[in-house]
């Protein structure tokens, strides 16, 4: 049964549905006219009028990158320091704790306020869909960012391990 999900026809069908869902057509939830009217394409809601949301985008990339690489960097630092392997691997909890604090204080409250404003009618509900798109995109980019910071994070964990021991 698990191989069913990996079949080429299934992957092609999923990719076709994703492409269809992301297509900016007039009938879609986030149409090109909607984006132009709200200023999304001309630097409005997300990029121009509210630079804090751009900061949210970048912060979410950072948080996801730290979360993604936390355990792996600690394990690699343990491989670099075989005598202090357990100390290095236990530091992954601290690394992921930092990511959790960043998410709890910077990312989640902003998304919650925007959602609450949409529920109160101060924002259109379509802006929530747009915000969700940017959060999903930042999660994907954060995963790629984790690949960039993997080795520096491992050496940082190694350095902290040497300080602690």
Supply the key terms.
mainly alpha, 6 helices
Strand and helix layout:
Elements: H1 8-22, H2 32-37, H3 51-80, H4 85-90, H5 92-120, H6 126-164
Written description of the protein model:
By secondary structure, this protein is mainly α. It is flat, with a radius of gyration of 20 Å. 76% of the residues lie in helices and 0% in strands. The chain starts with 7 loop residues before the first helix and ends with a helix. It is built from six helices and no strands.
Instruction: Please indicate the percent range of residues in DSSP E strands (runs of 2 or more).
Output: under 5%
Silhouette:
flat
**Main sheet: strands, sense, barrel:** none
Briefly note the structural class of the backbone: mainly alpha
Number of helices: 6
Average of pLDDT? 79
Rg, please?
20 Å
Number of strands: 0
Residue share in helix: over 70%
Separation, N- and C-terminal Cα atoms: 48 Å
Low-confidence stretches: 24-30, 39-48
Order of helices and strands: HHHHHH
